């Protein structure tokens, strides 16, 4: 009788521990660092794997054999969509055709299209509205849901949404007095964030890092610099500054650096907010 009573008392604890252990092993594969920052707001950072390494661009990334293994074995994958990450398109299409796909895929571009927000810029992770929706979707994947800790997951998402909304408002206010100053970015990657904070770039050196601007384009940009239309140029750490040096040569122009791939960020619950806040501060400092 005592043995039976002990088993009755211990069984719930063992069951809860078993559920938690299974949940704790649930990892997600995220295609790039910025999307991983969004996921980390509502998902344990130590259980997030990032496919494209820091310092490499998803524009022209080539999968390694080890990457293919990760994709095949993943249960959940968050990616930017075929416009930005064509190297994953085949695997996503295979999953979509399967009657019972092993892997759950969340396509950020499709999600943004469904929300009626998608434009021509494939860097969808810089849309605050989309980031909030992704955070909501990822929170449903959180293993804590199975461990009966869903209230904390819900609070994490609400905090993310509230803090991001507040950041958009404060960034607008911070940059409003500087809207008269023109600026160039390295490549057209920031449209959604700039739209959200109500500021507009005067131009981009290139639409895509794989395309070098022609001589005529460089001459037009240099003329704008000489006519004092531009007070700030923003480069990117992944690419050689030689192109910018050519255009700026001999001119005194403020320079800063934006990283659309968040290479120096570390996955935390606030990392995405911190990254966008740093972008605003860098832009404001460069425009002053």
Could you please describe the fold and organization of this structure?
The N and C termini lie far apart (79 Å). It is built from eleven helices and eight strands. Mean pLDDT is 86; it is low at 1-24. It has helices at residues 2-24, 33-40, 65-73, 89-97, 108-114, 128-139, 150-175, 191-196, 215-226, 242-248, 271-287, and strands at residues 28-30, 48-50, 76-79, 104-107, 182-187, 203-206, 230-235, 254-257. The strands form two sheets. It has a four-stranded parallel β-sheet with strand order 2-1-3-4. A four-stranded parallel β-sheet has the order 6-5-7-8, with helices on both faces. With 288 residues, the protein is of the alpha/beta class. Helix 2 packs across helix 6 (128-139) and helix 6 runs antiparallel to helix 7 (150-175).
Summary tags:
11 helices, alpha/beta, globular, disordered N terminus, 288 residues, four-stranded parallel beta sheet
What layout of secondary structure does this protein have?
Blueprint (H helix, E strand, L loop, with lengths): L1 H23 L3 E3 L2 H8 L7 E3 L14 H9 L2 E4 L9 H9 L6 E4 H7 L13 H12 L10 H26 L6 E6 L3 H6 L6 E4 L8 H12 L3 E6 L6 H7 L5 E4 L13 H17 L1
Parallel strand pairs: 1-2, 1-3, 3-4, 5-6, 5-7, 7-8
What oligomeric state best describes the polypeptide chains here? single chain
The low-confidence parts are 1-24
Q: Could you give the order of strands across the largest sheet?
A: 2-1-3-4
Structural class: alpha/beta
Distance between the termini: 79 Å
SSE string: HEHEHEHEHHHEHEHEHEH
> What is the mean predicted local confidence, pLDDT?
86
Largest sheet: 4 strands, parallel
The percent of residues in helical segments reads: 40-55%
β-strand percent reads 5-15%
> Given the structure, what is the number of helices?
11
Number of strands: 8
Instruction: Choose one word for the global shape.
Output: globular
Radius of gyration: 22 Å
């Amino acid at each position: 009788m005592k043995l039976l009573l002990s088993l009755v008392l211990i069984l719930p604890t063992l069951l809860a521990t078993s559920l938690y252990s299974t949940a704790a092993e649930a990892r997600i594969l995220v295609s790039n660092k910025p999307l991983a920052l969004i996921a980390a707001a509502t998902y344990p950072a130590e259980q997030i794997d990032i496919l494209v390494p820091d310092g490499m661009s998803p524009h022209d990334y080539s999968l390694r054999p080890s990457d293919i293994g990760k994709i095949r074995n993943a249960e959940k994958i968050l990616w930017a969509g075929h416009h930005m990450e064509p190297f994953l398109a085949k695997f996503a299409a295979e999953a979509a055709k399967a009657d019972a796909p092993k892997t759950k895929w969340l396509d950020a571009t499709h999600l943004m299209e469904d929300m009626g927000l998608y434009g021509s810029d494939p860097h969808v992770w810089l849309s605050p509205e989309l980031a909030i929706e992704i955070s909501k979707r990822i929170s449903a994947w959180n293993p804590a849901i199975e461990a009966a800790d869903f209230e904390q997951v819900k609070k994490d998402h609400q905090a993310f949404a509230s803090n991001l909304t507040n950041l958009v408002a404060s960034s607008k206010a911070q940059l409003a007095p500087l809207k008269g100053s023109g600026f160039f970015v390295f490549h057209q990657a920031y449209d959604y964030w700039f739209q959200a904070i109500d500021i507009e770039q005067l131009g981009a050196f290139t639409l895509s890092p794989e395309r070098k601007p022609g001589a005529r384009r460089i001459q037009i940009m240099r003329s704008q610099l000489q006519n004092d239309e531009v007070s700030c140029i923003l480069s990117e750490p992944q690419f050689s500054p030689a192109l910018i040096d050519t255009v700026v040569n001999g001119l005194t122009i403020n320079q800063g650096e934006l990283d659309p791939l968040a290479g120096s960020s570390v996955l935390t619950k606030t990392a995405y907010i911190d990254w966008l806040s740093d972008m605003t501060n860098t832009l404001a400092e460069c425009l002053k």
